[in-house]
Design goal:
The structure holds two protein chains of two kinds. By secondary structure, chain A is an all-alpha fold. Chain A is about 70% helix and about 0% strand. Chain A has two domains: about 60 residues, no CATH class; about 230 residues, Orthogonal Bundle (MetI-like fold). Chain A is globular.
Amino acid sequence: MSAAKGRVRLSGSDTAFNFFNYVFMVLMSVTTLYPFVFLLMSSLSGLDISLGGFSLLPRDFTFENYGKVIRNPAIGIGYWNTIQRTVLGTLLSLLVTFCLAWPLAKKTFPNRNFWTGLIVFTMFFSGGMIPSYLLVRQLHLIDTVWSLILPELVTAYNFVIVRNYMQTIPNSMEESAKMDGANDIVILFRIILPVCKPIIATIALWVAVAHWNSWFDSMIYITKASGQVVQLVMRRIVLEGSDQMTQMMAESQRQGLIIAPEGLKAATIMVTTIPILCVYPFVQKYFVKGVMMGSLKG
Amino acid sequence: MRRTLRKLAGVAAILACVSGAAYGQAKMSITLANYQIEPTEANAEMLKVYGEKFGADFVPVNIDNNKYHEILNLKLAAGEVPDFFYLKEADKLNSYVKQGVCAKIPMDMLTKYAPNMLKVLNDNAPGYLAMGKVKGSLYGIPAVNAPNAFHIPLVYRTDWMKKVGVTKMPTTLAEFESLMYKFAKNDPDGNGKNDTYGLSQDGLNAVFGAYGLVPFDHNSKGAAGTDYWLLSEGKVVNAAIHPDVKKALALIQKWYKDGVLDPEFITGENQGGYWALSHAFIKGRIGFTTRANYYHWAMPGVYNDIAEDGSKSPCQPGANAKEIGAIDPKITIGLGPSLKGPTGKQGIKKYNMLMNFYCFGKQLEKDPAKMAKVLQFMEENANPDFIVRNTIKDGTQNKYWKLLDADTETVSYIPPYDKDTGYVSRIGATLLRIELPFPMKAPREQWAYGLGYDKGGIDNLIQVGLPVATKYKDDLMKMRDDAYLKIITGAKPLSYYDEYVKNYLAAGGKDAQKDAQAYYDEMSGKS
């Protein structure tokens, strides 16, 4: 607004406010960025960086840690599994969430509140870990990629956001399309979905990040080595020899064993985190809009 | 060429028929859950090798070791009880037996199918097998960690000692005290500033040890630590409330006041990174520590390793030694003996030698044939021939490893396995491996024997988790740490100790003690 009207003279209190605003923003950014920079420096260090004190430089600069991570076959296999579940899981999740939210967003849908309530109910009460495990096992999903996708295919939270967003779309849009002779499927895919772009981007990002980061389901449902996701491999490397007990057990396998140094752990974290970070800038512009539109209207 | 191939195929076919006839029936399938570095594929090499040897089909149950008990519990709840599984936390045996998950292991089965295993346990770790008993019956075979026979190290800055004019390693608490005061007051780093201390958190182990006590176990990150039980005048006492703790606290309180104890002792010596590092020591803030294990402090060349060609070569530095070398190669360190205290006791903390338990699924109680098979592969780990038992540990000889020196049982791993620690899990060896207390012969351990570190460690009287003690453990340990801290920093006077003991006993400590006493009486009466 101020840009259109030219430079507005700021009062003293405004200047003070801006000043502190900037200071706090910079401090906030530094506190969130520093751990990341620290990790980056640790991953480029040949020695344990915890002894270097507060520093922005690596100790004993080396790329060897990254070399080791890339040469580790488990990382490659894990990457493939993670990409597979993320792509497949996100596409399916979007499809099913939208197909579910669309009818329930329509005021004319019979017993709409009952069905919505039933879904929202699962946000507060869940079956727990053991029944989930039994269910997945009895559906013969163990050791398949579907065990990582189907149980969390639709989350109630995402459903509510999408439904609320769809409710803001004026009914007249649909009516005009109908008059032009479009059927329900055409309306959903050619009229409604393009309008829903911001919410699609938002939900897609959420689901993709959740798939990328999750490891616990893989730990439970995937028992074969070749099916494990990269986060699980990363976790294993990071926790290796992390205390007296694990060291003792690793030592019993091989005396004088070289526990993965901190630099290697940091490099593994970097390698598994950076790809998903790169997605953020591309969906940023839809992100805020999508969340706001979806959540404000109850 | 083709002819030979055909011939070979014919021989193979005949062999297959013969072996099929010999076994006659389908192989029995045995599911295994054990410590793993990485998961194992179903048809892993060593599982096949030993499957053929013992006529069984070994099936891996891959459980990530970092969440071992959560996942195991899930499988148990779903009715998938592995035939053979290990308990990562020895404390859990009691509750697993109570829930009816573990099979009773008859003694005569052990003597019949695993005589060597029994012998190794009884010879090198007497009394440990009895720890696997619950209400008189055996449910778990103990995994005994032989290297834990060595107590924690007493590490001194020897260059500082020279600077303050002390040439001999302290052997008594009095000598130790005088050295600590010199470290703190006589500017051992020579920078003209009063910025050094004698010791910090880990160093306190040496002080308590001189009174024959191990009151806390702060090194185990995450877990609440281990309860240390002692025998005091014929009675079982938790070291946390032993009367002599008061004497040790009096001394430490004085050191704190005099600036000998690092005021940062509260947050510990490690400031992130690898757990075994003592940042305070490495950076020259303190001159003494007991952190981690002796081998973390091995300076290059303190003992000789056996090299690839069989010759001797100076050893590589341990984790702490490596960092010290990187900071300043002029720093020298030395490992001293445990201290003798004013009450005539001498010793220092050592970790529990009881590491885990190996258990059999409840279903094996009704399937002695399967139990016998499991015992057979366990027995393979106890074979007197080093080559045989190392094959089950490291895989096929001359493919993964070769023997460098038979006397010290030194092996070298064939590249790329020398840099690949996880391969033993991928080939399935770790699933069949059990940890047994064989005598240690490697040069590294010989160095520890030379330091006398196998003597003077304070044994924990009860190494299994007792139900009552486990129930109150977290609260009681919080109470203990709080009281010690207040007394050391002078927030409370020394007399507060008696009040703390009273509170401790009232908050469950008394019940825990009673339970421990009953357990001890039962064990000592029977074994």
